[in-house]
C-alpha cells in the first residue's frame, strides 16, 4: 500500500451498516428492489378507509383533499420487553422514538455488531418530525383519550414525545457513550445528521456513529389539502424532473446508517457498502425569492464545498443523487445549482 492509499483511507468514512422502513419496503433489500423496478409505493385511500381512520367527513369531501400518502407497515408494533421498556412507558411513547430505537439496533446488527461489542465511542445523530403535521401521536392518541394521562404520566409522556429525547434514548437503551445529538433541519435533517456524524468521526469525536431520521404521522391513513402553488401534488403522484411534475407527496419512514472511519473499517474487516469522502453544510441566507424557496447559489456552494473537502474533481463524478421534490420551483433550481457546481453547460447537462 502506498502513501496515497494511506492518505485516502485516513480522510474518509465508511458506511458499514444500514436499516430502513419505507413505504412498500421493510428492509434495505426491499427498498433497493423497489428502486430497480421503478415501483411507486404511495397508497391511495378510499373514502371508507379515511372515515374509519377518523378523518372528518367534510375534509374527505373537500375537492382539494388528496387521498394519498406513503405508509409503513405496522408502526404501532413494538417489542418493549426487548429494550427493557415497560408496557406503560411504551404506550406513552411516540412511535417515532420506538421506530428510531429499533432501526438503530437493526443498523448495528446489519454491521455485524451488538451494541455491547462495538469498540470505542459510539455517537448518535438523528431527528424526528414535529410541528403541525407531526407529533400527532401526542395530540391524536394521548390528549384525545380522556383519562389516559394522569399526573404521574407527565414526565414519561414528555420524554417519550418531545424530539429532544430521540437520540439520548437510543444512547441510554443501547449503552452508547459517544455524542448524542438531536438534529432538526426540516427536509435535510437526516443528511445533516450524517454530515455532522462524518465531521465527528474525522475529528475523533467518536469511533462509530449512527445517523438517520424518522417521520411518522397519525393516523397513517390521511391525505393532505392541496393548494395552488404549494409543495403538495394535486393528484397524489410525485414526478421529479418531469415535465408533468406538479408537487411532492408526504410519506412516513425511518432510516439509519452506521458510519466508521474507513481505515478502521478496513482494519476490522467490516462490510463496506459505500465511502463518504466529503460532507458540507451551509444555508442560503436571504438570497432567495422567499423563506421556503431554495437557492441556486446556496446549493452550488455547498456541493462545491463537499467536492473540495473530498478532494474529488467534478468531472470524475458519474452519479448524482438528488433531492428531487417534483415541484415546478425546486427541481429547476436544483438542476441549475448542480450545473453551476459542476461547471457545465446547462444545454448539455444530464442527471
Radius of gyration: 21 Å
How many β strands by DSSP? 10
Order of helices and strands: HEHEHHEEHHEHHHEHEEEHEHH
Largest sheet: 6 strands, mixed
Task: Please describe what this structure looks like.
- The chain is of the alpha+beta class.
- It has helices at residues 3-10, 28-37, 47-52, 57-61, 87-92, 95-110, 136-142, 154-161, 166-173, 189-202, 262-267, 296-310, 330-342, and strands at 13-21, 43-44, 65-66, 68-69, 122-128, 180-182, 208-215, 224-225, 253-261, 274-276.
- Strands 6-5-7-9-1-10 form a six-stranded mixed sheet, with helices on both faces. A two-stranded antiparallel ribbon has the order 2-4. Strands 3-8 form a two-stranded antiparallel ribbon.
- Helix 6 crosses helix 9 and helix 12 crosses helix 13.
- The longest helix has 16 residues, at 95-110.
Write the layout of secondary structure elements.
Elements: H1 3-10, E1 13-21, H2 28-37, E2 43-44, H3 47-52, H4 57-61, E3 65-66, E4 68-69, H5 87-92, H6 95-110, E5 122-128, H7 136-142, H8 154-161, H9 166-173, E6 180-182, H10 189-202, E7 208-215, E8 224-225, E9 253-261, H11 262-267, E10 274-276, H12 296-310, H13 330-342
Parallel strand pairs: 5-6, 5-7
Antiparallel strand pairs: 1-9, 1-10, 2-4, 3-8, 7-9
Helix pairs in contact: 6-9, 12-13
